[in-house]
Amino acid sequence: MKHKYLPGCVSGDIVTAVAMTEPGAGSDLAGMTTSAVEQGDDVVIDGSKTFISNGLNSDLVVVAAKDPAVENPHQAISLYVVESETPGFTRGRHLEKMGMWSQDTAELFFSKCRIPVKNRLGDKGMGFLMLVQKLQQERLVCAIMGVTVAERILEWVTDYCRQTAISVSGKPMSKSQAVQFALVEMTTEVKIGRTFVEKLIAEHMEKKDVIIETSMAKYWTTPNQLK
Ligand SMILES: Cc1cc2nc3c(=O)[nH]c(=O)nc-3n(C[C@H](O)[C@H](O)[C@H](O)COP(=O)(O)OP(=O)(O)OC[C@H]3O[C@@H](n4cnc5c(N)ncnc54)[C@H](O)[C@@H]3O)c2cc1C
Asked: With a 6 A CB cut-off, is 152 part of the ligand 1 pocket?
């Protein structure tokens, strides 16, 4: 699979998506109901997913699905690579969101979708563990986006305040002390975010366990985009 798909993923010719979330299973991933029944050399997938990034644009979807015969939900989930042209795989609505418009968010449906069992990623039943192991990296990526978006917004706001005159005095808005206070406060928060995230990137690259700190970074940096 690595030889077949990864070169296209790296060159950008293959757009991928990861489909975990379902209408009834978000934070509680173990509650998913999409099933994957392995039958000889094939596996048959049935169920639906929602809020999937690149759901419409993807050529390849990594689908988390459960073996209904396994009781423990944490040992029942496996990951399967589904090509977009596979019969039984269809796409639903393009969901509207506030930002990140270059990346669609969509619903996906699987109805008797049959793929080769060799398209299972890793060992059977290890899907939950594999997804959880990547949470640190995913949260860190969210924090990096939070910092960089906030930095860009701050640049735009600062330029706007420099270039726009206050109607009463005719001076640029940036000369107003009240505006300066607000800009300094924003700059400080963005700088704190960047300093923290840069430290975490270094620790993540050293393969340290910083899952708690990356969660804190995501919590701290993402609301800064909206302030
Ligand atoms: C833009 C966007 C892109 C996405 N892309 C993908 C994707 O590519 N692939 C994918 O699989 N999913 C994707 N998702 C889905 C995302 O992972 C889920 O939205 C997320 O898991 C939360 O699930 P939910 O929306 O059902 O919220 P819920 O799980 O219903 O949670 C609702 C609220 O309740 C809180 N809550 C939930 N459980 C508890 C608890 N036990 N204790 C206390 N509070 C709790 C949550 O913190 C949240 O505030 C995307 C979502 C968005 C918005």
From this structure: no
